Amino acid sequence: MRSEDDLELNAFVDGELSPDQQAELLEAMRNDPDLARQACELGQLKAQLRLAYADPPEPQRQGVAKVGASWQAIAAGFLLLAVGLVSGWSLHANAPGLGIEGNRFVVLDPEGRGQAPAVAADEETRIVFHLTNPDQTAAGELLDEVEAMLAAYQADGRALRVEVVSHSEGLDLLRDRLSRHKERIHDLAGQFSNLTFVACQNTINRLKVERGIEVKLLPDAEVIDSGVNHVVKRQKEGWSYIRV
Amino acid sequence: MKTLMSMVLAGLVGLTAWTGAVIAAPEYTKQQVVYHINGDNPKQQAGALRNIQNHINAVGAENLDLRVVMHGNGVSLVLLPEALPQVPKFKHANADEQMQAKIDGLKDQGVAFKVCANTLNGRKVNREDQLYNVDNGDVVPSGVAELAHLQAQGFTYIKP
Asked: According to the model, what pLDDT value does residue B14 have?
């Protein structure tokens, strides 16, 4: 890989590219599974790093032990990092479809949503909602439920991650032209960084091939190659699954 | 001091593991299953109850911890038909005599029916007067959270 590509990929994962540059890179990823895999790996690595440093060990406050304590903290940091890297790598190695033969890719938005670390912190509740139903009244009720839950967990300081995977006719919720909950989705996505809306690329492709529709998604939607694969993967990772 | 702390901590961990093992052991062979109902089509709901009966027939009631979680439109399963005019947010009230008999039959075999409090509050449903045989213990704060919680406990999720 050329070093400009490397820089661009890093900037992409960090969410520093302009929408146009992002779109261009996404298009390139669609045609180049290898590139998509690299982006995915880079995203995972960064997520692992954040995870490792998210909860630094408390420094001891016992005067004499000051130097020792900071060394302990650094050592603990490295240990966490090592655990993160090793478990991340082994998960990666075991995950079907993530290898070279697969063309899985995860699109990351500027806020970094969609790059859920596969290794959850203890006690974190993780729920994937699988939306295949075109009924947007029901989808609205889902958003009510999700919002109530996110607010309750936030108020209690409990960790929660929620993904709404829309797929097949459920994709309407995330389509710019058809969604009846555009503003709501935008507000929720802005308010809760632990909420991700995911659209299925297979559905988007099918709409184009079968009905000539160029799908335009809401700006807050992530794209995943296969919605079905994704919900299966999440369940294997220990997420709770709820079909809407 | 540090040694004492770590001993206490190790003791606590040990105790938790021990009590966990003691409580969990008798449940070990039981299948834990949660059925999710959030649609209001009476035929689909009756079909779901039939699925559950078949499930019990196959596995045996004594080997099952089976729960039904209803939220949103799914609460219509236990909504009494005479209450329908008072709850405009529901299109169906399916707890007629036939459905009641099915629900009772399953309850007799140990099936628990759980109703979402968010739905009851949001749609202004009076649990005592408008629902069929739902007592306080059958109401969970959030149907969705309950589904997630049960799965985290090892329950298998089925959406009929």
From this structure: 56
Interchain proximity A149–B152, CB inside 8 Å: no
Q: What is the pLDDT of residue A89?
A: 54
Q: How confident is the model over A24-75, as pLDDT tens digits?
A: 766 776 667 676 666 666 665 555 554 444 444 444 444 444 444 555 666 6
Convert the pLDDT of each residue in A168-191 to its tens digit: 999 999 999 999 999 999 999 999
Q: Which residue on chain A is closest to B145 by alpha carbon?
A: A149
DSSP, collapsed to helix, strand or coil, labels residue A105 as coil
Query: What single string gives the DSSP state of each residue in B86-136?
Result: G-TT-S-----HHHHHHHHHHHHTT-EEEEEHHHHHHTT--HHHHBSS--G
B30 sits in which H/E element: none
Interface mutation target, options B33, B38, B40, chain A, most CBs of A under 10 Å: B38
Sole residue written with tokens 């184009």: A208
Q: pLDDT at position A102, please? A: 31
Q: Does the distance separating the beta carbons of A244 and B144 come in below 8 Å?
A: no
CB–CB contact A244 B157 (8 Å): no
Q: Hey, are the CB atoms on A145 and B144 less than 8 Å from each other?
A: yes
pLDDT over 70 percentage in chain B: 82
Residues A26 and A35: their CA atoms lie apart, in Å, by 10
pTM score: 0.62
Instruction: Decide the pairing of beta strands A240-243 and B31-37.
Output: unpaired
Q: Which of B73, B118, B149 sits opposite A145 (nearest CB)?
A: B118
ipTM: 0.72
Please check whether the domain covering A120-244 is classified as CATH 3.40.1260.10: yes
Residue A60, Cβ density class (10 Å: 0-12 exposed, 13-18 middle, ≥19 buried): middle
Residues of A in contact with B157 (CB under 8 A): 240-242
Q: What does the domain layout of chain A look like in residue ranges?
A: 1-105, 120-244
Query: Where are chain B's structural domains?
Result: 29-158
Q: Higher confidence at residue B13 or residue B46?
A: B46
Q: Which CATH architecture has domain B29-158?
A: 3-Layer(aba) Sandwich (3.40)
